[in-house]
Specification:
The protein is globular. Helix 2 runs parallel beside helix 4. The protein is built from 4 helices and 5 strands, in the order ββββαβααα.
């Protein structure tokens, strides 16, 4: 597959490199338009089945990933695939866990870790990354 999101698609974050990643809250309806080619679901419980390839990263609400080493591998894979595919990151509300993961992808894309939360808040959702420990997690995230 060699199709990515459009910059005007709902929830799409454009990284400095030009890569496009969609963040989404699973409690909201699926946006109109093409489905993701690959999704990462950031949830405390196993997500429902979807008709596209997806990966579950265990991540309880308002917390941090249960396995931080695995989270790093998942984020790197999502970032790499986003060069040519429609990648979606999603949690229940689409702000805390999703915003934190998007900020980590921004770090992988070259945004300094101490600026990644602000980058995601400016370009994705001003309420992204909801807790102080999520913010610290991003500040200490290294590629």
């Amino acid at each position: 597959m060699s199709e990515t999101w459009n910059t005007t698609d709902p929830g799409v974050l454009k990284l400095p490199s030009g890569r496009l990643i969609r963040g989404r809250g699973l409690r909201r309806p699926l946006p109109d338009g093409p489905p993701p080619a690959y999704a990462v679901y950031l949830l405390g419980k196993q997500p429902p089945q979807v008709p596209w390839p997806a990966r579950w990263l265990r991540w309880p609400d308002f917390r941090l990933p249960s396995d931080r080493a695995e989270a790093g591998r998942v984020f790197r894979e999502a970032w790499e695939r986003s060069a040519t595919e429609r990648i979606e990151l999603a949690c229940g509300g689409g702000r805390g866990r999703t915003g934190t993961a998007l900020a980590c992808l921004a770090v992988l894309d070259g945004v300094p870790a101490d600026q990644a939360v602000e980058y995601v808040r400016r370009h994705y959702d001003r309420h992204a990354v909801e807790t102080p420990w999520q913010k610290r997690y991003v500040h200490h995230f290294s590629p």
